[in-house]
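EI: anyone free to look at a 443-residue chain?
SC: sure, send it
EI:
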Amino acid sequence: MTALGEMSGVLAERFVGTTALSIGDAQIPFVAVHQGTAQLASAFQENGLRPGDRIAILLLTTPDFVMAYLAAHRAGLVVMPLNPLLGPSELVHILQTMQPKGISISEGMVIANRDASEREMMYTQADTILCGLPFSHVFGQVVIMLAGLMAGATLRLAPRPSPDLLFADLKATSPSVFVGVPTTIAAVAAMGRQDPEAATQAASNLRLVATGGSNMPLAIGADFKAVFGHDVYQGYGMTEVCGCIAVADFDRPAGEDVGAVWPLFDWKIEGSDSETATRGELLIRGPNVFRGYYKDGVLAPRAVDEWFATGDVVELVDGRYITIIDRKKEMIIRGGYNVYPSEVEAALVSHPDVELAAVVGFPDEELGEEIGAFVTAKDSASIDTGALKQWVRDRIALYKYPRQIIVIETMPTNPTGKILKKALPVDVLSDRHKGSGQPALTS
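SC: here you go
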């Protein structure tokens, strides 16, 4: 039996009488998790599944997911977790073609990142972890679920991790660790502002608040700290490494950096001078980097010693700490100047009335691309887009500020809470810009 297959039994012996999972009013001990895991593994085998067979898991973040995941490994199956919030056509496409970009991950990778996450997040048996991410996502699955269980922590499960339900759970359970994507952190902070007494109760046992999945502007972290009294620390990772690449150092003040790259990886920055570059695309390699992508169910393998281009532009701080600038493919080229949306988004959300911001490029005949932004209001505030535009102009280079700003009621997000820029009506920005009659270089 593999190490992940043995995990539930090992934990049942190590943490006798300890609660592993908490959901609603139910408290499920490690022994019960192991019993359920063993029964499911037997059921898989009795139904004809054999080691090496593939199994898709389509479950919410419930005890069933935890036990099905561990049972599949116990039975020697290849596990493919699917997000249950995806639509039917998306699920059919994934099942027929192995995901739009199926990724081959070894058990050794899972275990290495599980153990590193347990150590770096400093989980203990005393922790109760409220995870605002689905366990079908590698962040929730490895960095929270597996690493938390390995430490003997109690996982507070959120089957539908919407901000309002998470805030209610924070109030009711007062966990020691809370993890969510930046949009969730911002929304929970907004709810806490409206109910300070509940926010105080929710924060009474917190020792760590962490975020990942996308860049978090400093203003969002500052808002959360103003309400709950705790810094928000950023982590950085991707499915291709089965979890984290780096997590901010909890002994340092929370800021823009995501900490130092974990020793699981070799790394370098690809820039104009690859020997001394401090800003450019992050490249990584090592045994904890994925083995290749599937295309139509067929694996295209990659060499272990091959450098993997993450697609993320980073900046090195103090010779060690990584700050994520933006996704390379999202960079906007305006009149020959490079503009990273995350820098503009940070300036937008620093305005006291702005909750969330998404910056995109749109076609411009003179400059190639122009800069536009979509924003949502904080606490039902009324946003003056002209004043907001001036606010941003005063804080970043003139070639970077958004020429068009549109206020929307809600920001489109994917099932994990990450902003979906492809779902924004970018053509409206272009139409408004054409109708403004303003010269592009001076508007």
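EI: The mean pLDDT is 91.
SC: 👍
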